[in-house]
């Protein structure tokens, strides 16, 4: 539980990038699909709660980075998200930014001797 | 893949609704939770177990937060109108009017400006579109010249005739003397001598005259006592007036003249036989002395009537002459003489 909350803390900052990055790969996804995809790839290390995911999706949609289309599946309305042109641009820059950030963090967290080598 | 039954979905739906999830979010969250439930069923859990797990993840608090966050997101997009009309009857019309105000305004301004410009430019457009008149259509062309209008030169006023200097005789200062003490007698004044007065008369000042002293007329002869000099300006004889201030008239008036005519006028026999009647217009000149002259017929009726009228006219005694500016003048006078059979 404790590890989960701390990981959630980091996830909150990178959630936008994660979603954009996934959508850039998969073209179109729905909410549950995204959570499953994240869970599978990280083998359950990162679990997106729908309470965190949907506000981000809606915000990105409002910013014009995503478009939605509703499709009826099994008698239920399923909302698919896909990137717009500015969305894919944002996905690229954000992923680059995150990678650079992760590198910097790694440098920070690495033992001193190793870092100087 | 196990599929959720309809009643199970309904159960989820009512759960979400009861926990205050906003209806806009409902389908999406429902789908998500349904997927999750199916997943759990797939793992071999019973529906009751799965539902319990779902309620754990989607506890009422989380749903509440989700709804509030969604509302905040929407609020950022809302305009002032949306806030004003929140929870009011939007279909009444005012909301539509307000919403469309901006575009309506833009359109109306654009239309108004276009219309105004069109009206303003219409004469110019018309002039451009109508072809120039053909050569043969032009009846005549008038060319305008600039004319300098000069003020009419007023004739110079007639030179004023200066009154001729009155004849002036030589005078010699002749002063009557007062008896004064010696010291007050002015030296320079000496009485004129006889020689001085040979060619001058005594006067107040010494004046060089321009007339001979011998021409002086004795005052008695110059101005006869009680008699003014009468200046008679006679009108020139040849001038004959048509209309004068005071017309000439028969001595004794019109009645006397009618009497005279009745007495002297004889109906010519020829005319009486032919039964001629009418007026003979005779013209004559009443001289300055009242004499009738230059009698002629202007318009006659013939048969001896004209001659008879002229004869009688010549017989008339002297008239009272016409007067112009108080002077008797010659006046031409026209008169109809009526010949009428009884």
Task: Explain what you see.
The complex is a heterodimer of chains A (117) and B (342). Chain A is α+β, with helices and mostly antiparallel strands. The mean pLDDT of chain A is 83. Helix content of chain A is 68%, strand content 16%. Chain A has five helices and three strands; from the N terminus they run αβααββαα. Chain A has a three-stranded antiparallel sheet with strand order 1-3-2. The longest helix of chain A has 25 residues, at 2-26. In chain A, helix 1 (2-26) packs antiparallel against helix 4. Chain A has helices at residues 2-26, 31-41, 50-62, 85-109, 112-116; strands at residues 28-30, 66-73, 76-83. By secondary structure, chain B is α/β, with parallel strands linked by helices. Helices cover 39% and strands 12% of the residues of chain B. Chain B is built from eleven helices and seven strands. In chain B, the strands form two sheets. In chain B, strands 3, 4, 5, 6 and 7 form a five-stranded mixed sheet that branches. Chain B has a two-stranded parallel ribbon with strand order 1-2. In chain B, helix 1 (6-18) crosses helix 2 (26-42) and helix 2 crosses helix 3 (47-57).
